[in-house]
Amino acid sequence: xxxxxxxxxxxxxxxxxxxxxxxxxxxxxxxxxxxxxxxxxxxxxxxxxxxxxxxxxxxxxxxxxxxxxxxxxxxxxxxxxxxxxxxxxxxxxxxxxxxxxxxxxxxxxxxxxxxxxxxxxxxxxxxxxxxxxxxxxxxxxxxxxxxxxxxxxxxxxxxxxxxxxxxxxxxxxxxxxxxxxxxxxxxxxxxxxxxxxxxxxxxxxxxxxxxxxxxxxxxxxxxx
Length: 224
Hints:
- The protein has 224 residues and is an alpha/beta fold.
- It is 50% helix and 13% strand.
- The protein is built from 10 helices and 6 strands.
């Protein structure tokens, strides 16, 4: 993969999006919906996993809307490569799949959200807004399936001695529900800086690379 120096997070209100979708009609529909939003602009499109990585490195978008079933490398592998090179880029998986194992693989790849194809425009825009603001999004149609799948997985972390303060437990609950630092701050009556500090401490205690991993571990441990 081509070496690249990631940019700092963009401060502009206009958020750039890369659409990765091999169905021409689906790609056209997504582009039409997104370009109608005054704060969003589609800067590029890709039709396979290899092209997705190359185009992402070139444009460094704020958000990647990624299908899983792609020619070449699949969306999960492409998401892993994009996340490694562009840590500030947010990835939202958009796919027909509702299989919990596939969902878990997508989230473990570094995806910040998972939205099922066929969802309405309002829900899609909500998903984009959620991941854009630093939260995580899981389509309600498959959330219950994922939670059931977590219960059947071997609990490799059952003996972990994770001690959280009462305030950290409150923040953890908000984090599991997919809220961003700004939303957590508003909900719990604290500054965004304080909320960010609590989230970073939780990630450190859970030895998690991101919020999604921490949420999954919290669910498996029964902490929330």
